[in-house]
Amino acid sequence: MTGPRAGWEAPVTVAELVNAGPLAGARMYGSGENPVHQVRIVDELSVFGTVAPHTAVVLIGTAASGGWAVEMATRRAWEQAAACVIAPAGGLSEGSGEVLAERLGVTLIFVDEDPLIVAVRVASAAARPEAARTQLVARCATRLAEAGPSARRVLGVLNAELPGTSVTLLDRYGRHLAGARTVDRPGVARPGTEAQGAGGRGPDRGRPEPSGDDDRGTPPGTGLRWDASARPEGGARPEGSGRSEGGARAGGGVGARWSAEVEVPDLDGGVLGTLVAAGSSRSPGWPAAVRTVLRLAVAPLTAWAAQERLRSSRDFALRRALAERLLADAQQEPGEPGEPEPEESGARAEAIALGWPVEGALTAYQVRPTAEAGDAALAGTLIAAAVGQVPALPRGEGWAGWSALDPGELAERLHRCLRTMPWPCAAGVGARVEGLPSVEESLLGAEAAAFVAGPGAVVRADRMGPAELLGALPTGVLRTPATVVLRPLLAVDKDGTLLETLAAVLDEGGALRAAERLGVHRNTITTRLERIKSAGFDLDDAATRLALQLACHVLLR
After folding, report:
1. What contacts 68, CB < 8 A, 6 or more positions away?
2. What is the rounded distance in angstroms from the CA atom of residue 140 to the CA atom of residue 147?
3. Segment 330-351, tens digit of pLDDT
4. DSSP labels, 332-385
5. The pTM is what?
């Protein structure tokens, strides 16, 4: 069998019967990793001599009663390599039987129902493992539909319905969004073994190392990853003996570690994140069923992202608050070495659902109205339509945010955005930075670039020259200080020619180029410079030249 249901016909494990099958609600001691091939009802201990390996032994009659009956049955089950021992609850042996089961590595189960009825159900599940797993998938489908479009509720259902399996939702950057905080992905980083994904096989051809008569493996087409190094404790069974050599802990040892991953798309055809499940199993049927359940969760998670995006598109205040929370979280100081990392904020999950970039190389932008400002919500909608799913929060005299685009591509899209604005605007693009903690630096550059850009123009901060930097000066604030600095010159400059000459000489770096710029003879410039110096200005002093150049630009603008 190939495809997503490959491996479903593999024998069910004891853990499957307890977690999602006819033994649900029973008390299990041990890992339950052994496969169940058949069921045997035992009413006397002498019957154990004919019990085959991988048999679920159901105790009744004298085998289940008496002070030490369950303990003796557990020891005999260990000798015969039985899958598990099922005994009626309430007997005197339940407490001591638990201790012996854990010491021998035998899975012991106590049930409240009639053991004969339980035996029939277990036998049915063992005979038709695919049907038993189909019931699990059907139940998960119902619960996922009831959970609705909520990442937390969906992951809560998965982790509740798949005991022994950790399920988490990672964003497209590989960081936790919802579900289990940590998931061991054995096929990814096991030293000494080759990781394998959905489309490849390692040198062991995708199968864990075999253990005696255990017939596990990775069925083709499941997209599962196995850890070949995680074999049951105790090694192969010695010839002529039904038990594991040395006796493995917790029900015969932990089975092969596996992980399954399912990609979750977003509305734009990209990747919202990845659902990752991991656990251990000696049967490929369980991880194959888990993968099918993961696929059922893709639709509600995509719907959750769509709902978040729709809610945000209707509420500009919500998007603004979310962007501000992201920036505030990014500026928080990391803890001391050795301290546990703080919980991920909900803002990150919401931003990922909206399609906002929150990691990697980022470029800030600012759109500034050059006339009377318009509606902020409309501006944010038009920016998103041209640039993509990006935050747009009020900042300074306009609206700012960040994108994963490089500065050149972002500038081109902002050009198109400015043509769609119902009022004249200019835009600026900041330098490319790494991660949200550095976005503030890029935002400052974008704000300065937008300030010097004219209507309909986009200026990149990484390409601003001296003229653009000087043009970004806040003239309204600096006009009074500039007038004070140049007051001696303004007192003798009746027509403004001296101020214009001083600005040209300082900008061009000399009298000759200043004369060419103003279209006058060099001697004229020399004469005017003498008058400027006589007003008390020392043009040979670097600090004086800088102050005069800034003051000239402020007044001439």
Report:
1. 93
2. 10
3. 777 554 444 444 444 577 777 8
4. SPPPPTTSPPPPPPHHHHHHHHHT---SSEEEEEEEEESSS---HHHHHHHHHH
5. 0.52
